[in-house]
Automatic annotation (TrEMBL):
Belongs to the SKI family. One of its GO terms (biological process) is positive regulation of activin receptor signaling pathway. Residues 72-99 are annotated as: Disordered. It comes from Drosophila sechellia (Fruit fly). InterPro entries: c-SKI_SMAD4-bd_dom (IPR014890), DNA-bd_dom_put_sf (IPR009061), SAND-like_dom_sf (IPR010919), SKI/SNO/DAC (IPR003380), Ski_DNA-bd_sf (IPR037000), Tscrpt_reg_SKI_SnoN (IPR023216). GO terms for molecular function: co-SMAD binding; DNA-binding transcription factor activity, RNA polymerase II-specific; RNA polymerase II cis-regulatory region sequence-specific DNA binding. CDD domains: DHD_Ski_Sno. This is GM13257. The gene is Dsec\GM13257. The lineage of its organism: Eukaryota, Metazoa, Ecdysozoa, Arthropoda, Hexapoda.
Length: 338
């Protein structure tokens, strides 16, 4: 018997089949491009203003939408609080102008332009487009603001090791970035990197075990509850979680069983030692949603009990985040009236 397929389902499937080959770019579509970013160092890269729709020709008044966050980045609020003391909150200091780069590998641009947003990564604001359900970050801004302590040789090596490919900006996306002052006006080309791959780079460069502090056993509270946890992001990693160590300002509470490094839940879910998934197409990862990736080990007795503890840890994080945001808004209002 032949099943009846409604016209709507047929339309959706046809649209998906058409767009899928254009949005999932990989090594087969890669184009090696050297010196594709003709960025002049005297250009300015300020915090954006915004317009979400793409326009083919300048002048464009850019309007950047703020990304809706489901989980916080604790260090962001501290950084913002320090930056607003004694200074009206509406005034932004210019960002460091992008340095001249040659991108590792660029694949062909996605067909869609997407909407212009700003997102937070490692406490830094990055301009991005929402394309195909994932944020595509401005590559030069990401490299200069987040990975500015690393040489291009170091960054390119990690690109190769992780099998990361970047897409090219379309003309409309480039116009939007310029209008938002994310890129200098005389830049002729730029690249985009998915948030997933940007987080993989941060994990490999910023969150290495040798860059993390070690917590001596004697500093742990006597009788503190600990249990085994794991994640399967980009491979797999196992650790020991000690919830009593967690606080909103210092969330480090998970010890990696392989390297003994200590991580916050958000950083641990991107921490791996295995290279099994370097040639896998990763999509949709966001370390701020660590609760979706972190699990109690399967061989732990009373596993459900410890899973509830992880749930409570996430609730504490959200509660403290909202409290810190309210305090920050209160301080900003006081500054306005001074």
């Amino acid at each position: 018997m032949t099943e009846y397929v409604t016209p709507m389902i047929s339309t959706v499937l046809k649209k998906y089949q058409t767009s899928a080959t254009k949005s999932l770019q990989g090594p087969g579509h890669a184009l090696t491009t050297a010196g594709v970013l003709d960025i002049v160092t005297n250009g300015r890269s300020e915090s954006p203003g915004l317009n979400g729709k793409c326009q083919a020709s300048p002048p464009v008044v850019a309007l950047i939408k703020k990304e809706i966050l489901s989980s916080p980045e604790p260090q962001d609020l501290q950084h913002h609080e320090c930056s607003t003391r004694g200074t009206p909150p509406q005034i932004y200091s210019p960002a460091t102008p992008p340095r001249e780069l040659s991108q590792p590998i660029l694949s062909v641009a996605d067909a869609g332009c997407g909407e212009l947003y700003e997102t937070k990564l490692e406490g830094k604001t990055i301009g991005c487009f929402s394309v195909g359900g994932e944020m595509r970050l401005c590559l030069p801004q990401f490299l200069n603001n987040v990975l500015n302590d690393f040489s291009l040789e170091q960054i390119n090596r990690i690109f190769d090791e992780l099998g990361i490919y970047c897409s090219q900006c379309t003309h409309d996306q480039l116009v939007e970035f310029k209008a938002a002052k994310i890129l200098p006006s005389d830049v002729k080309a730029s690249g985009l990197i998915t948030r997933t791959d940007a987080e993989r780079l941060c994990a490999a460069l910023l969150h290495r075990s040798d860059r993390n502090s070690y917590v001596p056993i004697e500093s742990l509270a006597k009788g503190a509850l600990s249990f085994h946890v794991y994640h399967k992001c980009f491979g797999k990693c196992e650790g020991i979680c000690t919830p009593d160590m967690y606080s909103y300002q210092k969330p480090t509470c998970i010890k990696c069983l392989e390297c003994d490094g200590w991580f916050s839940p958000q950083k641990f879910v991107g921490h791996v030692h295995r290279k099994f998934e370097n040639h896998t197409c990763h999509w949709g990862f966001d370390s701020r949603n660590w609760h979706d990736y972190l699990h109690v080990a399967l061989d732990v007795e009373n596993r459900e009990k410890y899973q509830i503890i992880l749930d409570q840890l996430k609730e504490v994080e959200l509660k403290e985040m909202h409290k810190a945001q309210r305090e920050l808004e209160h301080k900003k209002r006081k500054v306005r009236w001074v």
